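Customer escalation, tier 2.

The customer says the design service returned an amino acid string that "doesn't look like it belongs to this structure." They asked us to rerun it and document both sides in this ticket. The original structure tokens are below, unchanged.
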């Protein structure tokens, strides 16, 4: 699959402006030379929210790095229901399965919000792994982190009620923006429909609980943002 063939996608090759894969958490320990080569070989893809990057059923022969925004994953059950898996946010490595198999993917990958994604062929990534073993460690860490994230999602879906899942998702969205006084702002705040997809419920349940939280002063809703005056009022999420 060519990046340039994805409907609604603008793709360009090489190093452009400030769009770069950097060391960060995912690529910690990778040499500057390897990072430069990753950037040189990748294609940059700009996705609008909702645009499908990889449709379900397509062969998976490329890996992606989320430089900005978020990718989300959905799969259909035999009865036609949609199951949304927890998304991959900025800095994430996505579709590592392409390293070992080019079989059709069971799930679709799409932009959860406007996103910038670096795309590199699996064989090129493997070639760089052979030069820099730290890159292999990064891929393994990413796979393990993804596995733990999906395990957390299963536990939440099977053990927590909707209200508790909403509180947990609020804390996850706020975790990188918690101020010293314990307040946090989520901006932009997802639509209620998107929020519901994240936690396996429906939009009405999200609207109802957010209204309750605002009524008791636990959250303050504004234009495309939500402020949590004191995150401890929402409990603790398994980050």
């Amino acid at each position: 699959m060519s990046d340039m063939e994805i409907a609604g996608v603008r793709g360009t090759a090489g190093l452009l402006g400030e769009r770069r894969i950097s060391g960060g958490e995912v690529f910690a320990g990778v040499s500057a030379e390897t990072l430069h080569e990753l950037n040189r070989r990748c294609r940059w893809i700009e996705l609008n929210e909702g645009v499908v990057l990889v449709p379900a059923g397509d062969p998976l022969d490329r890996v992606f790095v989320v430089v900005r925004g978020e990718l989300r994953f959905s799969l259909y059950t035999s009865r036609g229901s949609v199951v949304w898996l927890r998304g991959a946010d900025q800095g994430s490595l996505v579709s590592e399965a392409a390293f070992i198999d080019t079989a059709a993917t069971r799930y679709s990958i799409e932009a959860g919000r406007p996103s910038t994604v670096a795309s590199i062929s699996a064989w090129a990534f493997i070639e760089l792994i052979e030069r820099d073993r730290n890159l292999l460690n990064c891929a393994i860490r990413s796979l393990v982190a993804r596995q733990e994230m999906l395990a957390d999602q299963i536990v939440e879906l099977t053990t927590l009620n909707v209200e508790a899942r909403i509180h947990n998702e609020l804390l996850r969205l706020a975790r990188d923006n918690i101020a010293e006084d314990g307040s946090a702002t989520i901006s932009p705040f997802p639509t209620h429909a998107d929020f519901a997809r994240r936690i396996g419920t429906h939009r009405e349940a999200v609207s109802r609980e957010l209204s309750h939280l605002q009524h008791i002063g636990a959250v303050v809703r504004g234009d495309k943002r939500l402020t949590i005056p004191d995150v401890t009022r929402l409990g603790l999420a398994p980050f």
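Tier 2 assessment: The sequence is consistent with the input. The chain has a mean pLDDT of 86. The radius of gyration is 19 Å. Sent an explanation to the customer and offered a walkthrough call.
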